[in-house]
Amino acid sequence: MTPGFENLLKGLKSLPGLGHRSAERIALHLLVEKPEGLDALIEILRTAGTSARACSICGNLSEDEKCSICGDEEREQGKICVVERVPDLFAIERSGAFRGRYHVLHGKLSPIRGIGPAKLNFASLRARIEKGEVNELILAIANDIEGEATCHYLSEEIVGDRDMQVSRIGFGIPSGSGVTYADEVTLRSALDARRDFS
Amino acid sequence: MRLLALNLENFRNVEAAGLSFSGQRTFFWGPNGQGKTNLLEAIAFAGVLRSFRFGGAESLVMHDASGASLFHRFQGDDGNESEVLLRFDSKGAKHVELDGERITRLADYVGRFPSVVLSSRDFRLVRDGPGERRRWLDVTLSTSSSAYFQTLRNYHRGLRERNAILKRGGGDAELDAFEASLVPAAVELTRLRREALPELSDLLAERYGTISSSREKASLGYKPDLEDADHATVAGRYLAGRERDRVLGSTRRGPHRDDFRFLLDSRDARHLASEGQQRGLVLALRLAEFSFLRKVCGTIPILLVDDALGELDAERKANFRKLLPDDAQVFATGTIHPAESGDSEAWEVFRVNAGTFELS
Fold it and tell me: Residue A160's closest chain B neighbor by CA?
């Protein structure tokens, strides 16, 4: 092994989801098997690294001050879907089920990991609400302990007494699946979230 | 349910071993410190995915090995076979496969392969502090109900987060946010324990009646830390405790401080009962656990007897054997070969020597 190869391996292994073997495969691919693609990749990384930033309004990935969603005048203005992370936003976008705007918190409250309210993107959400541009908040946040606490904090501390509709996405049986195989907790929340059918 | 085969790799002092069991009664025989209890521990692991012994997960893996694995083949009461594969690395991370499929939600798994451990150290359940009793109650009820398992997990997760806020000196808004889910979990946990204890208590009374020649009535008395069962009162208790908890840096009151007492004719057995009565009580508790799990899991648990007879005389041993349920598969350990101790049962005997096993 050469020092350069070893350095590359170390760098790759520090990325999330890459173990020793995958890192080795990628390093070999880049340096030995397909070296002709290397320059292009370096350029792509450099460009992405210098142009990418967080949208100043919602926290989404963006190349400008405003992301493409915040800048889209066609989308519903007052409806905001709050998500933990950018991939959650992508997932909802792919579903095509939501035509409002977003707010990305970049995590959820977890005191044990040292994540308090100051570390989350609450301030800009508060600013958006204070400007009066929000009339409905949809919380698309996990239903584990930390997610519950984050929702609670949002509704008590950020929304407070303001006259605004706040809802939380439903948790229940996956589409196309049956009741038999659902676990007790999922069934309970599915029953709690049942809807009028008539 | 029966265990047909067990393979171990780098598990505690066992480098590699493959054992298959033909009968209902298996005996691991050998001097102390050779690995007999490690085998029982390995069998019990398939049930609750944790050790019944103390100590960190890192000691589960043999010295110098990067990870350990266990493989179990079980036969259900209906004759169908299932295979469980468990892997742990030296940091304690677990990987569980059932019939070749990875288990990611432990709540779906617990209760499938129940076992009950009888050990000569069980008397600590009566004599020691509440921690051991709470642990026993939590493991037993988690094995029996995934709702209990989830509630317990949520409660402890919420508790850890609340304690982290207290240690950091975080604000009331953050405490509000986490107590909002901690309180329902606390109420539910207390309710589930209050509901299950009378059943365990009745089973204990019945078993104690057959073990002991005396006429006292044995029972279990639940001592919840928060007596009040309704949501508003419990929420008020956490709220009122904040200043004190901030000083302590942890949550002082709640179901994590619950306890139960062993009672003989409504007198606390911890201080008042004789040693013989205390041993009788824990034995009755284990047999009650067996009956309880058998009912709620819908399968016959495996009985693991860790040197439980070591200190008993011949007559008591004979009495004890009569208590072992006929249809349960039993694994026992001891330093004396069962044939030499005048045991009439047909044991399949493995000789255990420095982490190796040999059918004798």
Answer: B173
Return the structure tokens found at B305: 């007897």
Q: Using the predicted structure, report yes or no on whether residue B345 has a pLDDT greater than 80.
A: no
Return the residue in A112, A151, A192 with the most chain B beta carbons within 10 A, the one to mutate for interface testing.
A112
A63 with A41, same domain?
A: no
Opening angle at CA A87, ends A44 and A130, nearest 5: 110
CATH tag, B1-114+303-360: 3.40.50.300
Cβ of residue B150 closer than 8 Å to a chain A Cβ: yes
What is the complex's ipTM, to 2 decimals? 0.72
Nearest to A111 among B150, B164, B180 (CB): B164
Shared domain for A23 and A63, answered yes or no, is no
Mark whether A45 and A60 lie in a shared domain.
no
Q: What pLDDT is recorded for position B342? A: 67
pTM: 0.81
Residues of chain A above pLDDT 70, percent: 100
Label residue B119 by pLDDT band (50, 70, 90). confident
Domain boundaries, given as residue ranges, for chain B: 1-114+303-360
Q: How far apart are CA B335 and CA B156, in angstroms?
A: 40
Chain B nearest CA to A16, separation (Å): 18
Task: Determine the residue of chain A that is closest to B145 in CA distance.
Answer: A184
Q: Is B240 on the interface with A (CB under 8 A)?
A: no
- Domain housing A192: 54-196
The band of B316, judged by pLDDT with boundaries at 50, 70 and 90, is low
Shared domain check, A59 and A21: no
The answer to whether the CB atoms of A148 and B105 lie below 8 A apart is no
| Cβ atoms B160, B168 nearer than 8 A | no
Average pLDDT over residues B262-289: 89
Handedness of CA B78, B83, B88, B93 (dihedral sign): negative
Q: Do B176 and A111 touch (CB under 8 A)?
A: no
Provide the angle, in degrees to the nearest 10, between the axes of the packed helices B314-323 and B172-211: 110
d(CA A132, CA A154): 16
- Residue B106 forms contact with A (CB below 8 Å): no
- Same domain for A158 and A71: yes
